[in-house]
Specification:
This is TRAP transporter solute receptor, TAXI family. This protein folds into two domains: 189 residues, 3-Layer(aba) Sandwich (D-Maltodextrin-Binding Protein, domain 2), CATH 3.40.190; 132 residues, D-Maltodextrin-Binding Protein, domain 2. Helices cover 30% and strands 22% of the residues. The chain is built from ten helices and twelve strands. α8 runs parallel beside α10.
Amino acid sequence: MTWRRRSFLGAGITLASAGAIPRATAGMPRMALTMATGEPGGGFALYGPAWGQSASAAAPVTLSYRASGGSAANILLVEQGAAQLGLTTLAVADQAWLGTASWTGRVTLRGFRALFPIFPASWQVVSLLDGPVKRLADLAGRPIGVGPAGGASAVLTPALLGAVNITPRLAIAGLYTEQIELLLRRKLDACAFFGPTPLPALRDEAAKGSFTLLGVTKAQQAAMARLPGMTRMIIPHTSLPHQTAAVATVGSDAIAIGRADLPDQLVAQLTEAALSHRPILRATNLPPHGMTLKNDWIDASSPIQIHPGAAMALRHHGFAAPARLVRS
């Protein structure tokens, strides 16, 4: 099997941020920050600017945005200092912190800290209704798409399929819209994407009635959920147009991250902006159930450290911030 990859770090995009929330500068100098987000069609591309708008109105920051493949690419951008804020998933952050994945170079990446939970991100595998793939096992020996290079699916799908002894013939990384087009043209037999349920790109195309979601068996779900940062999830039957039943899968919560050396007071304001203004963040066209935040979003046994500034805001809003994990 060949895993084709493109560059993790996409082109930079700069946008102005403004908002109507009263500013709380508290005497701090204004800082210019870059946030690493994601490619169009995914949840990060929508959530990042919405958070940025709230944050720039609540804290003394001027934000620009850098599009990338997603979870792994964003961690690398923060590690390299090319971005100070980013969006990722717990499972990918686990890989970075432990240095267990090939994309990390097998070295630990610990220059970032967790800030707050965003939404549950599920593994969504789709095939054509009239195509050859009817169940997950049918992916063996077939070409599949795994979303943008540097995204959660591109780095997690090999391990997820490996956990259940399924080996595709070819796995190709690319933009969501490009891969959906390849699926429709039958150049790919399935696509495996990772993101809010449903992923915006899939929701838009599924309205045409072309796709079916592939579920996992109980045994497959149990094997996949044993991977670090992964958990069992259910995709509700109302998630996609023409979907008639709930689908079992796995997933990992999406989280915001920031550089470890960001000032505590600033990080507290940035986190407070996200947790206090959820209606603004929901104005992203992301599904309401995909925006549900869990109070126990991070387990005390997690290796990922939480920024002290974020811990203050998290506890204020009733979210977990175990003392063992709080570290500047």
